[in-house]
Amino acid sequence: MERKPNFKEMGERANQELSELSDQELVEKFQAGEKEVLSELLNRYQSRIYRLAYGILRNPQDAEEVIQEVFLRLFQKLDSFKGESSFASWLYRVAINTTYMKMREKRGADMLPLETLGKYLEEQVEKRGSAEWSSRPDDELLTEEALRLISAAIEQLPDDFKTVLILRDVDGLSTEEVGRLLDLSPAAVKSRLHRARLFLRKRLDAFYRQLFEGG
Amino acid sequence: MAKLNCNDVLQYMDDYIDGEMDSELKKEMDLHLQKCDICHQIMMSHEKTINLLKKAMEIEPDQKMMIRIKNYLNSHLSKH
What distance in Å separates the CA atoms of residue A164 and residue A158, rounded to the nearest whole number? Predict the structure, then answer.
């Protein structure tokens, strides 16, 4: 008989028995009727999905809804998962699609068109003198205001730049993995990553120069 | 390989930081960065930006949220 997942009881069993199994083993158990293993997959991936969804949507409630929708979809679709890619890649793809759907529902006016971002997205050697701020400790730099600035800057990036930035720099996926998830060539991933980092750096550079040098 | 100029260094900056660069090119980059203060500063601030982003994004769903997610899934999946 098929066992329904019970997320309230997930703690003990997930930690004690299931956490040692590979993703593939959990998927096989699920496909064999042990639906309760979904709780371990939730344990394993909810933080990563949250960071991805929050990174793109910039709203904790929306990110929470993405996790819920992803795991509902997972429950409905995991039986048909054939293992042609890794489970993690498959789940990321579901999470990205769900996040983009949410983004389309919520699309605000904050994202700048690419041409407006243009001045930030071109690298030039600027003889502006020392960016002294970059040698300061992180604790001194990560003020509430700086965090708000980073958040606002990410929000302004085009979706695919934002997604590449989160997957590469926050989740630590490789260029090739990100390319496979987003159907982009490695060169296209690198280009988006470079420009997203550059945008963020220029925003921070202006902010910290103002803060520390008054200029 | 010909000596790198500043624009070359900026072009390769991410590959350098991400360790996705062959050793010959990395040596050339290191040489340039030792001599060029401007590129060195840009590289430092670029790298720092990435570190700050990582730290700014060190977020987890809180305990209350995790309970809400589990309750939501329990109630929805019990209908299947």
Answer: 10
**CB contact (8 A) between residue B69 and residue A127:** no
Q: State whether residue B34 sits within 8 Å of chain A by CB.
A: no
The CATH number assigned to the domain with range B6-77 reads 1.10.10
Q: How confident is the model at residue A2 (pLDDT cuts 50, 70, 90)?
A: low
pLDDT recorded at residue A88: 93
The dotted CATH code for A10-106 is 1.10.1740.10
DSSP letters along A109-168, please? S-SPPHHHHHHHHS---------GGGGS-HHHH--HHHHHHHHHHHHHS-HHHHHHHIII
Consecutive H or E run containing A93:
helix A87-106
CATH number of A114-213: 1.10.10.10
pTM equals 0.83
Give contacts of B56 with chain A, Cβ < 8 Å.
142, 146-147, 150-151
Ranges in chain B, pLDDT < 70: 1-2, 79-80
What type of residue sits at position A143? T
Q: List the domain boundaries for chain A.
A: 10-106, 114-213
